[in-house]
Design goal:
Length: 340
């Protein structure tokens, strides 16, 4: 997954670095999103070095206290930027209004990204401080990474976890509602019908846009209810898996291998959206894929290799050995010799 994610985000960065795509706020956000996704996957790869038996204290300390914290930070940044992109796309569906023009301008895009990055870094300061590296009580000579929170910091961390989940999903629902409102207003004006009748009609047609966000919010309540009743298995969706595990198991016994594997799987699921940037964003858009194919360095190299493999060579009889000349050609030569 990490290798696919590296290639996906490198292709995305190579595409969105072009000036014509950076003229829009969405293009700027997608470029920053691709860079943060690539860096987050790099931090994930560095975390795998914790599994080495020969790792000493200092490298393990750096991975535990710095690399793991940065991986968490950039994952949250990608989540917020993704919802900000959805909100920006919804605002572009409206007519030119001074307030909306200021929000969706290029100058505002840079400020929005800067505010998000600074706020998320500040919301993870306590996590970076409270990370500790301790000797492994089971395996001698190895170490374990733990986060020791006080009661107040644990409450604050839980609040931040809910903010990272519910605020982006709320922005996603708001963006979908704005898109529906814009389409309904135009259709009502065009067909001389009421706004709400068009809104209901468009909701029946585009209701799938609300499915992911609504399912995520309903599922998180469902999971919290059942984890309190000690059910051992539940369905999880990307960020929800990490949320439920953090709420249910604040402290994990290292001898519970199944729980450690479950936590590792939840962390890997969290990186799936970051690893599929190229397939979700560029391959699904004809305009973006055209820029990738014709303008980006990676796209031109891939297309050149594909064209070279599919090139048709025109072979004439002069290029063939005498024993491979077609039979009708031999007949013509025999006829000419007979005439002579």
């Amino acid at each position: 997954m990490v290798a696919v994610g590296f290639a996906s985000n490198i292709f995305s960065i190579d595409t969105f670095r072009h000036v014509q795509l950076r003229q829009t706020t969405v293009g700027i956000h997608l470029l920053v999103y691709s860079c943060c996704s690539l860096f987050g996957l790099l931090m994930l790869e560095c975390r795998l070095f914790q599994l080495l038996d020969s790792l000493t204290y200092i490298p393990f300390f750096i991975i535990c206290n710095v690399v793991s914290g940065l991986a968490s930070i950039f994952t949250r940044i990608c989540l917020w930027i993704n919802e900000l992109i959805a909100l920006q796309r919804s605002l572009h569906s409206f007519e030119h209004i001074p307030l909306l023009n200021n929000i969706r301008s290029r100058a505002a895009a840079s400020k929005q990204l800067l505010v998000i990055i600074i706020c998320i870094f500040l919301m993870h300061v306590h996590e970076l401080i409270c990370r500790v590296t301790l000797p492994d009580p089971v395996a001698e000579g190895k170490f374990v990474c733990q986060i020791k929170y006080s009661t107040e910091l644990l409450t604050l961390n839980t609040i931040f976890i809910f903010l990272h989940l519910f605020v982006p999903f709320s922005l996603n629902i708001l963006a979908n509602c704005l898109i529906m409102a814009s389409i309904s207003h135009r259709r009502a004006t065009l067909h001389q019908t009421t706004y709400w009748s068009q809104w209901l009609k468009q909701f029946r047609r585009h209701g799938h846009l609300f499915l992911a966000s609504t399912l995520a919010m309903v599922t998180v309540r469902f999971l919290i209810f059942f984890t309190r009743n000690n059910l051992s298995f539940s369905f999880k969706i990307c960020t929800l898996s990490q949320l439920v595990l953090s709420l249910k198991f604040t402290c994990v016994d290292v001898t519970l291998k199944w729980l450690l594997r479950l936590n590792t799987s939840a962390n890997l699921i969290l990186y799936i959206p970051q690893a599929t940037t190229f397939f979700v964003v560029i391959c699904s858009s004809e305009a973006y894929f055209k820029v990738f194919r014709n303008e980006s360095l990676c796209g031109r190299v891939l297309c050149l290799n594909r064209n070279a493999k599919n090139k048709v060579l025109h072979i004439t009889e002069a290029h063939l050995p005498r024993n491979t000349i077609p039979h009708h050609g031999m007949k013509m030569s025999t006829a000419k010799n007979a005439e002579n």
